[in-house]
Amino acid sequence: MLPLDIFETVIKSTALISIDIIVRNNKNQILLGKRTNRPAKNFWFVPGGRILKNETFEVAFKRLIQSELGLTETVESKFKGVYQHFYDDNFASNNSTTHYVVLAYEINFNGKLSSLPKEQHSDYKLFAQDELLSNEQVHKHTKWYFQSDKQADRLFK
């Protein structure tokens, strides 16, 4: 992890690369967390996070499913595509925008909601896809994963 002042400079200067994890259960419901930090604070959002310097995709994915979902075992994932997320603010809210290049993956998870970490999300909820798309508290970048190609800001499939 970078010192705060250096990380602020990075956010002002370049795009961040991250992994978002679309989590479905055996009832085809999608797990979302209520974000506790910027950007997208107080919105329902898929779990995920940044890839760190010198961290491979595989290591980042394992770290994120552990820190975001509490999973320590290997899970099968399906690559969903590359997306771009643009925000008007950043984690420090210092009048700078945030730009993410996001690698989206989908996994199946049938664990208990009570065992999910609370560091990044204050609450968790399972949504039916139609409910997710119609809920104004679900962030638009999360909705993009469930909309047609014309509506989503996706680069590649």
Sequence-ordered SSE layout with sheet pairings:
Layout: H1 4-13, E1 16-24, E2 30-35, E3 44-45, E4 48-50, H2 57-69, E5 78-87, E6 98-108, E7 121-127, H3 129-134, H4 140-143, E8 154-156
Parallel strand pairs: 1-6
Antiparallel strand pairs: 1-2, 1-4, 2-3, 2-7, 5-6, 5-8
Task: Give a short synopsis of this structure.
The protein has helices at residues 4-13, 57-69, 129-134, 140-143; strands spanning 16-24, 30-35, 44-45, 48-50, 78-87, 98-108, 121-127, 154-156. It is of the alpha+beta class.
List keywords for this structure.
globular, alpha+beta, 8 strands, 157 residues, 8-stranded mixed β-sheet, Nucleoside Triphosphate Pyrophosphohydrolase
Give the count of helical stretches.
4
CATH superfamily: Nucleoside Triphosphate Pyrophosphohydrolase
The CATH level-2 architecture is identified as Alpha-Beta Complex
- Rg of Cα set: 15 Å
What is the CATH level 1 assignment?
A: Alpha Beta
Low-confidence stretches: none
Find the CATH topology.
Nucleoside Triphosphate Pyrophosphohydrolase
**Overall outline:** globular
Order of helices and strands: HEEEEHEEEHHE
State mean pLDDT (0 to 100 scale): 89
Describe the structure.
The chain contains 4 helices and 8 strands. By secondary structure, it is an alpha+beta fold. It has one domain (4-156): Nucleoside Triphosphate Pyrophosphohydrolase (Alpha-Beta Complex), CATH 3.90.79. Strands 1, 2, 3, 4, 5, 6, 7 and 8 form an 8-stranded mixed sheet that branches. The longest helix has 13 residues, at 57-69. The protein is globular. The relative contact order is 0.26. The model has no long low-confidence stretch (mean pLDDT 89).
